[in-house]
Amino acid sequence: MWQTVLEVELKVKVPSLDPVREQLVRRHAQFRGKVHEHDIYYNAPHRDFGVTDEAVRVRYTDDHAVVTYKGPKISKFGLKAREELNFAVESGETFETMLDRLGFLKTREVNKWRENYSLGTASISLDNVDGLGTFAEIEVITANESDNPTDRIAKIAQEIGVEGEPILESYLELLMAKKPADRP
User: Is 156 helix (H, G, I), strand (E, B) or coil?
Assistant: First the structure.
């Protein structure tokens, strides 16, 4: 049986990743590795994802490719929450060719270097994003829309020194707002 899973996250721009990293180490967060993520976003031929607030992306990391569909944001938690469906593909390039043949258009690319940590049931990412700077993300996955993880996320943010206004836009949206992608 299919179950909807929501990704609820707090994203904050931080001046430096070092103080957050130090707090994570002090709190015995588990380091899950560092990875370069190269994301390629597509827009559908039958609807504009910029209007529907959806996303389709092919993510390349050091050793594999993952395709992701992100549903429209849900604002009931006061943070960024959305349905996310992921699956690995044997060849990201082949999948991109299939999208091209189906009429999907490449929208934008996002490059980031991410350090991954876990602290209890939360995932914490320290990101350095080309063209945007440094960010800390605290993410909790919930399978129940009535489960509100915002208090848990706020507590973790306070413990690791992540302060500031939550950023509800994706890195893609932030980059597109900064400089529209070149159009063919």
Answer: helix
Residue 58 and residue 95: Cα distance in Å, rounded? 8
Residue range 81-119, pLDDT digits in tens? 888 889 999 999 999 999 999 999 999 999 999 999 999
List, in order of start, the domains of the chain with CATH numbers. Answer: 6-178 (2.40.320.10)
* Exposure class string for 15-54: b at 16+ Cβ within 10 A, else e: eebeebbebbeeeebeeeeeeebbbbbbbeeeeebeeeeb
Q: Which residues are catalytic?
A: 41
What is the value of pTM for the model shown?
0.86
Q: 55-60 and 30-43 as β-strands: parallel, antiparallel, unpaired?
A: antiparallel
